[in-house]
Amino acid sequence: IIKTEKSFFALIVSGERGRVDFKSVAHILGYKQVRLATKKEVKEITGFHPGSIPLVGHNLPCIFDSRLLLHGFVYGGSGHPTCTLKINPKDLERLNNIIAKMD
């Protein structure tokens, strides 16, 4: 979860990407700065602790990594701290409010 000057967004990114370039994300969103949300902000905004935020159903606008579409399935948060969600990336894209994509 990232925070801009005005709002929060979810980043749905491939682990293949490595570190996220926050300057690039800020440019994609049209903001001057973005940063990771604090643990407290994540809990307040999503209702989940960092590390257990579900890939779907969080109601945040999302930035989607197009690299995920190269895979038949991706794995990520389910909303439960000990469970993982396996999902087709096309479904992940369809079920979220994707406002921007990373190539």
UniProtKB/TrEMBL annotation:
Cited InterPro entries: YbaK/aa-tRNA-synt-asso_dom_sf (IPR036754), YbaK/aa-tRNA-synth-assoc-dom (IPR007214)
All residue ranges annotated as the YbaK/aminoacyl-tRNA synthetase-associated domain in the record: 2-95
GO molecular function, one term: aminoacyl-tRNA deacylase activity
Pfam families: tRNA_edit (PF04073)
Name used for this protein in its record: YbaK/aminoacyl-tRNA synthetase-associated domain-containing protein
Organism of origin: marine sediment metagenome
